[in-house]
Specification:
Layout: H1 2-48, H2 53-65, H3 68-79, H4 83-107, H5 111-119, H6 124-154, H7 166-176, H8 179-207
Helix pairs in contact: 1-4, 1-6, 1-7, 1-8, 2-4, 3-4, 4-6, 5-6, 6-8, 7-8
């Protein structure tokens, strides 16, 4: 019975489902990209200028403990409904894991490697670009993977402020007591999260080939 309901839904609403899936992916990608563009430079500044680390980490640490739905609802009266406020709210949620991992990765580079690089005649900028950032990259990618999974899950709630996505399907299922819609929406979000994890795992393998030697 349930299998037939799910099959019937895709036969009758495949276009609608693809639209929701596309919206979900678009919002998630935009939020992740903006978060990375903010968090990685901010992490660099926190390590480069240590006085910045405590206030910056504190601010984003506080933002991280605020529930996803609360941030989305707080954005509603300020920015209105739609994809833009949802993207901004999701970006705020995604910055902390990328920022924290960027700081940790850049700070945890062994001092002897930095001394060796300086002894080889590298300039300060070369040490950052050829030593610190390459060695910090695994942790940065881990932060990005964590952020991506959190964004995909939280983007479901963005449907509450008119941003679209798979959350529309899930909340419709809740309102109509339709288990088939809940399963389709929930499994789709789970598969997106799993795919994001696989993507970053493969990306790390491709980028960090030097670790094999």
């Amino acid at each position: 019975m349930m299998y037939q309901q799910i099959t019937d839904y895709f036969q009758m609403n495949s276009g609608r489902f693809l639209t929701m899936l596309t919206d979900h992916i678009r919002i998630s990608l935009c939020a992740l990209l903006i978060a990375v563009l903010i968090a990685v430079p901010a992490g660099f500044c926190c390590v480069r200028f240590s006085a910045l680390q405590k206030p910056v980490s504190t601010v984003f640490g506080i933002l991280r403990i605020i529930p996803s739905l609360a941030i989305l609802l707080l954005a509603l009266p300020i920015l209105g409904a739609g994809a833009v406020p949802a993207t901004i709210a999701l970006t705020i949620l995604a910055i902390p894991p990328v920022l924290e991992n960027t700081i940790a990765g850049l700070k945890d580079v062994p001092p002897f490697l930095l001394e060796t690089a300086s002894g080889m005649g590298m300039t300060g900028n070369q040490v950052w670009t050829r030593v610190r950032f390459p060695l910090a990259l695994p942790l940065i990618l881990t932060g990005m993977k964590t952020a991506a999974v959190e964004i995909i899950a939280s983007a479901t709630l963005a449907a509450r402020i008119g941003a679209g996505g798979l959350g529309d399907l899930i909340f419709t299922g809740i309102g109509l007591f339709r288990t088939d819609l809940l399963l389709i929406g929930g499994i789709s979000v789970a598969l997106l999260s799993f795919s994001a994890g696989i993507f970053f795992h493969l990306l790390e393998k491709i980028i960090l080939k030097y670790k094999r030697f």
